Amino acid sequence: MSKLTDAAALPNTRLLNTRLLNTRPSPMAEELSALCEQVNVETQVAPIITTAPFAKETLDVSLTALLKNTPDPDFIWIFVSRTAVRHFATYLLQNKIAFMPKGKIIAVGPGAEMN
């Protein structure tokens, strides 16, 4: 799906009397619904999944080990969604951890790239 940033780019001539079942998780569901409402598409939000970070204790063990790899230029960091990026960034901020890896960072999809 293309970036959901400009409702004017949607082909609104075919959207008259259109209703949408929006199954995206929060906060993406609200973003999509807001765009649809701009072009008079009625939305019903019913997330099929929810997302949440791991428990702090689990993350502390996992990320402490992983963050030791930041100086390694051959270590690749891959994020599969903007939610993964947000949870990772939140963890870093809450724990006052600087993240400056020497290896590549890969963001899968435009949502992950925007974050």
Automatic annotation (TrEMBL):
GO terms for molecular function: uroporphyrinogen-III synthase activity. Transmembrane segments: none annotated. Coiled coil: none annotated. Keywords: Lyase. SUPFAM superfamilies: HemD-like. The keyword Lyase applies. It comes from the Bacteria. The keyword Lyase applies. Gene3D superfamilies: 3.40.50.10090. Its EC number is 4.2.1.75. Residues 31-112 form the Tetrapyrrole biosynthesis uroporphyrinogen III synthase domain. InterPro entries: 4pyrrol_syn_uPrphyn_synt_sf (IPR036108), 4pyrrol_synth_uPrphyn_synth (IPR003754). This is Uroporphyrinogen-III synthase. It comes from Psychrosphaera algicola.
